[in-house]
Write a structure and sequence with these properties.
Elements lengths: L2 E2 H8 L11 E3 L6 E3 L2 E4 L9 H11 L4 H8 L4 H10 L4 H14 L15 E2 L13 E3 L4 E3 L15 H9 L1 H11 L2 H22 L6 H12 L9 H11 L17 E2 L8 E3 L4 H15 L9 H15 L6 H15 L11 H7 L1 H16 L2 E7 L2 E6 L4 H4 L4 H37 L6 H13 L6 H6 L6 H14 L1 H7 L1
Parallel strand pairs: 2-4, 5-7
Antiparallel strand pairs: 1-2, 3-4, 6-7, 8-9, 10-11
Amino acid sequence: MTVIGYAYVQDRLKLPLPPVAFPALIRSVTRVERLEGELAVPAKRAPGEDVIEHLLFALKHEGTDLQVLAAACAHLEPAALLAQLRAAPAGQYIRKLCAIWEATTGQLLEGLPAGISGSVALLFDPTLYVTAEGANRDKRWGVAFNGLGDWDFCPSVRRTPQLEALLKADPLVQVREFLDTVPPAQLERALAWAYLDETRSTFEIEGERPAGNKQEAFAALLRQAHARQTLDEAHWVELQNATVTSKLAQEASFRAFQNHLSSGVPGPRGVSYLPPPPVLVHSLLASISRLANVETAPGIAPLVRAALASFGFVFAHPFGDGNGRLSRYLAHYALCQSGALPSGSILPLSAAMRRNELKYLQALKSFSVTARAFWKVTWLDGENFDFEFQGSPSMYRYFDATPCVSFLYEMALETLRKDLKEEVAYLSCYDEVVRRVNDRYDIQGSTLANLIRMAYQNGGVFSKNRRKQFADQVETAALDFIEAQVQELTPHLTQQAT
């Protein structure tokens, strides 16, 4: 078994990167074909020993792995690229490689041969990757950048069968269609609940129960997400100060130190994730902020944009505290800016994330575990460590975000089904039960509201303890009547309870 393409280049150049996920291997096959977990290649189609030939083969057959390409370009000599270019000045793959070399090294190739032409080459194959529409064309090379971001931050999203099914489901279309069916007054109450539930859930994910003023401040931030904002460092600092619960954790700038996440285990083994070195933070955050605004990064599906911006932010971890909450806020901001939701609406994604914390952790680990392997951690004393990054910066710029995007699509579908639809169903039930009860009994408004909620949440019945609790406030016949009405209006709850 011999590796070729990206895996060969990575091994040959000793690139400090995660292993290629789907390596190209020489196999006893008659043609190049994609198998489970690999690309099988007949020996007669394999490149020789030249690194550039392997990169050209990989671009043609494996796709566009910017992690490997960007790291490899730092090792490529301009003369070797020009030699390949002179041999095939119209070749789309050598033109792609030259464009990537210039963009990632910050240099220009000089002495270009005549005859560089050919049809426009898309940097990413839309049949293999989710891409941006309306790509920007590099006229110098005839290459259109259709990646999900820019050269400073451009994760890849593979078109897996699971993701294709989620893309086809298009949760946001379903959300808009559902919201259109809800009466305006009821919709207003449902959205008011959604803002509060999102605020409460995003803090609970972090294991916090903030004071009321902090919850109100975060809910106010969410309500501003439909307004265009300048996401520069000053604004991020303002947002961070508004979301953290301790004034001691409020920061005045992006971090100039190396932070880390801990699992609680003492020593280096307890360091579970290390975000990029401080020197990378500003460029990453500038690119992530551009990605979050549709004007500066058009042509990207709203939920894809939201996932990349949100997970990109939390992986960059620009602050010592508040990164998780801000990353989820950024998902909402990206959705609102894309126009995917009606003005004033919100999709309480954090509620679904909180119920699916294991899946959320798996999505985070899809990158964090890999990145952790490229850090040398030395325990000095107490809580003090020395951190040495031994990887390539390209891993933080061009990671595979497929699991992250799939996760957010799943959460959007669950939020619609489990949160929005159930809240609207509850409000419909509540309004009708109130009307029916008021026609027969005289029960204080706040007491009736509590009783309806309790019956609804308990499958349409009151427990013995609840009946005792309200025995001196509400007659037994009224309690029986409330139970009967809730059961009639919500038969699905009664079936679940039994």
